[in-house]
Amino acid sequence: MKPSKTNKFGMLALSIILIFFSCSDEAEPIIPNDNSPDVPDIEENEYTGINQWILENMYLYYFWNDEIPDGPDMSKAPADFFGSLLYSFDESTNPGGDRFSFISEDADELMAEFSGESKSTGIQFRLFYKSSGSNAIMAQIIYVLHDSPADQAGLQRGDIFTRVNGITLDDENYPDLLYDHDHMTLTMAEAQNGTINELNESVTLNAVVLQENPVYLDSIYDLNGTKVGYLVYNQFIPGPYDSNVETFDEQLSAIFSSFGSSGINELIIDLRYNPGGYVSSAVTLASLIGKSVSSGDIFFKEEYNDEFQEYLEDYYGPDYFYVNFEDKAENVGDRINRVFFLVTGYSASSSELVINGLKPYMDVVLIGEQTYGKNVGSITITADASDDHNWALQPIVMKAYNSLGHSDYTAGFVPDTEVIEPLDLVPFGDAENPLLKQALFMISGTARIARQEQRDMPGIIDASVAHKPVTMKRIANPGTEGSN
Fold it and tell me: What is the pTM of this model?
């Protein structure tokens, strides 16, 4: 039996908070009472308490809560139980299903990771099969975190390795070898005439706790009097983990202030490895770019499950679902008529939210590869002090639409000009970087990139950037202070 509408919204009482990203930093409660919803009668077992907590929260907030099966098996381990509740995605039969909800056994670690803090060697990579018909793979570094162990060891964008701790990478063992290791010895390799050859060279890295700065690089180019601002932005994070200071958003504003004072006429935003993050930072970036936008203009609109939508509207009013731009003195929209986004299959969630949200206000030009396709947002739900566990849920709770009501990018955005990143990676900011070069050509006409029909290697096998979770976070998680 599903919980009744009359009492279901009391479960978390005042522990639920919602951040008004476009208005203030003050958190307000959205749950006015503390009655718990009804759940199916169950036989007690070691997972009863956790699974009941999972089920209650999914009934409340899950976007597809009407698809939760009746009488779920409460005896399953929590991760399996959570999976059994999801509205299953199938590319052929149910392409509108859930590809993104997940559960974590360590809420603290998850929250740190969302804010760019994790124990890491500092390498972000992509994976390829080494040759057709083989399960052996290679890892290629796409960027290195500044001042990380990998940076200090001299590793660079484009470097290739084929073994970790002496074990050859393949399409079955790579998760165990590449993730959650404190110590890694990488056997380096190079590509020659389409063949990967191991080198008599290895690099040893020891993981440390790193706080990633998502603002990776900014530059200004002068193309015969046309000034072009360029920003590499790798995750939507307002500030360091467990901090109330929005250091990274402030850095974005400072960069755009510099763009404005330098008199830029064109703008290129490099989101090719940006998997998403906090909506508050998406609002910041969009508000710095948008042409003739202000706090009176809609950035995007939210849609929740029917019952939660009705509850929020009753409690906050219909304007709650509209997220507006912010007034930014550093906005460069009056200087430009269009914005170029460099994108790949790693560009997801809040990256796509910014692209979609700006389309009604200015010309948006996409260069690169088709984006990931995530037009939905999630919340982080953690236990309160009375619960004896540290699990966290990350369920999809809302769908996002731009001001024109468009949300048709579940398969990703198709680029206006396709440029596939080759195996021979060029540094960020280098005018010979293929995606950047194409944007500069479209601005100045001085150089052109031929459309590539296929990659140098048989194919990427991992569609995620290292450890980063792909997510768009809208509502602060229950029981976690300082969330955005």
Answer: 0.84
Alpha carbon distance 299, 426 (integer Å): 34
Nearest to 369 by CA among 422, 308, 328, 414: 414
Give residue 39's pLDDT: 53
- pLDDT value of position 20: 24
State the maximum Cα–Cα separation within the chain, in Å, rounded to a whole number.
75
pLDDT digits (tens, 9 = 90+) for 88-103: 998 889 988 999 999 9
Cα Rg of the chain (Å, integer): 23
What b/e string do you get for 381-400 counting C-beta neighbours within 10 Å, with b at 16 or more?
bbbeeeeeeebbbbbbbbbb
CATH number of 212-380+396-452: 3.90.226.10
Superfamily of domain 119-210: PDZ domain (2.30.42.10)
Give the span between the Cα atoms of 416 and 407, in whole angstroms: 18
Q: How far is CA 404 from the centre of its chain?
A: 23
Q: What's the Cα-to-Cα distance from 327 to each of 125, 260, 388, 400, rounded to whole Å?
A: 37, 15, 44, 21
CATH 3.90.226.10-classified regions of the chain: 212-380+396-452
Residue 33's SS3 state is: coil
Q: Taking the alpha carbons of 162, 167, 171, 173 in that order, is the dihedral positive or negative?
A: negative
- The tokens describing 254, both together, are 């400072």
Residues of the chain with CATH 2.30.42.10: 119-210
Instruction: Pick out the chain residues at pLDDT < 50.
Output: 1-37, 447-484
pLDDT of residue 146: 94
Instruction: Supply angle C-alpha 32, 34, 39, rounded to 5.
Output: 120
